[in-house]
Amino acid sequence: MIKYQKTKTLVTKDNNNSANCIAPNLIYGCFGGCVDTYCYMSRYNGHRVFVNENVNEIFESVVEWEKSYTKVPDQQDPIYTMVDVACNTDLVLMQRHVPGGLINYLKMYDDHSQLNTTMATKYPKLLKLDVNHFNKPPRVRVSLMPQKYSNVLEPNMQLIGSRISDVKRLQELGWEVHLNYSPLVFYPGWKEEYDELFAEVKAAVKDDIKCEVIALTNHRNQMARASPEAYELMKRSYEIKNSSGVMRYPLQHKSRLLAEFKLLYANYFKLNTIRYIF
To answer: What are 152-174's pLDDT values in tens digits?
Structure first.
């Protein structure tokens, strides 16, 4: 189901992870294969998609927020104020539903002297926009996990090897490409799976490339929808994190596991290429 509307939730939110702020939703929801497993958005929204047509008002919300924001060099970007424009959807997958077109929406931010955009995708093969004419390269974060886990948690989505192969193509189109190891799945044998993944990335991406790492979170609503196979992969993320019922890996184990992930990562890449990890 797709509903076209004008959002009244014109609030730009502070952020300190993927971006400096999160823009109001242009699209809320998507048709990705992870909707019935770990998708953060779908825990309450399910398979519904809302397309907000008041694009100019959404953009102006970000512009107004930026007027009171003082940018300093940080892990998001040394120069520009980074705006996550796709927090609750995969805009690459959903781009044909973007009012006015995705490239025109991104160009609104590009024409602003201080703002720049970032978005994550699991479908980089669908991103064919040439942005070499932009004033500054917009950022796309390509989401990766071991194919063994993706088969279960992201059924019928673009294969991981194909996503990795798209990195160079996107760079040639003018994009700033980062990697997004999210969700990071801890399961018996995870080290061997991620070792193979890092080796594949290293072979395909010759230059240092920045990344972010986010461990799997969970929720009872997601577990209720998950297949038995997905449930098995997700069940260890069970410690209640907050009042909304979000669950995470138990903190007594999570710190150790993240440290082990970094040791494994360091066999292939410089640790300072990890923008943040939690």
So the answer is: 999 999 999 999 999 999 999 99
- Tell how far CA 110 is from the center of its chain: 20
Measured between its terminal Cα atoms, the distance across the chain in Å is 34
| Preceding omega of 250 cis (within 30 degrees of 0) | no
Distance CA 103, CA 48 (A): 24
Question: φ and ψ at 242, to 5 degrees?
Answer: -150, 180
Backbone angles phi, psi at 234, to 5 degrees: -95, -15
The pLDDT tens digits of the residues spanning 93-146 come to 999 999 999 999 999 999 999 999 999 999 999 999 999 999 999 999 999 999
Q: What separation in angstroms does the CA of 73 have from each of 44, 76, 80, 276?
A: 35, 8, 8, 15
Angle at 185 between CA 182 and CA 189, to 5 degrees: 140
Q: What is the pTM of this model?
A: 0.96
Could you tell me if 230 and 187 are in contact, meaning their C-beta atoms sit under 8 angstroms apart?
no
Decide: helix, strand or coil at residue 58: helix
Domain count, the chain: 1
Tokens 């989505």, located at residue: 157
The domain containing residue 49 runs over which residues? 2-277
269: CATH: 3.80.30.30
